[in-house]
Amino acid sequence: MSASDRAGRGAPCWVSLLTSNLTAAQDFYSAVMGWTFRPGSLGEAFSVALADGKPVAGIGNVAKSMGVPVSWTSYFAVDDADVVAARIRERGATVAVGPIAVGRGRAALAADPAGAVFGFWEGKLLPGWHIGSGGAPAWLELRTRDAFASAMFYGEVFEWATDRPGRIEVRYEDDAVMVLTGGQTVACLRGGGVEAAPDPRVRPRWHVYFCVDDVEKAVEAALAAGGTVAAEPGRSPVGREATLRDPEGGLFTVTAQAEC
Question: Can you give the residue range of the structural domain that contains 19?
Fold first, then answer.
């Protein structure tokens, strides 16, 4: 089965939290997002978050063992992980982990030329997962310094905007790069002064937006569960949102945008 049969070659296909305390992470996201959890297929260190019984995200208790910070990672579907890894290296970026065999597929972690970490996946996907469904991510956003340079990098690596069936579309709107599949916006690449972001610790990164019914209630639940607020609730061009950190430092945004 090719990537184009599953999520669209080069399209977002999964998000995963690399944490250092699986139990604490499950407790926090259960309180804030209402998720339940089941064991993953990769062993006791992994679990799958469910919203209304459907998979929305993965959590892996691997941050310490991999020597990486606690963070949410966005994955993109590919047909051949080795080919994609070669394209990344050819463009001066880094493949930090893999491609390695994981379950019924192969995964890798990489960093783009600006340092933003992302993953890519060759293999079958969990059924029922797609951007904007239920508690799954509403969309992904790359916060970087030069959105157009990043669009060139990802476009070449994942073959965005190429002349093929099921291609990923790329549009330029309001000084940002919008990534669409099937007419739906699934990701945005936004440039500017990263150091001037609401949280000054944020450097170029892929950021995950999750749908919630009520932003204020999610913020209250996060604070009660030991999280912190990186950006207070406010209105954005697409809806009300707030940016939070879980107790281990994982950064994410909750949004009540109309598309959720």
Answer: 3-255
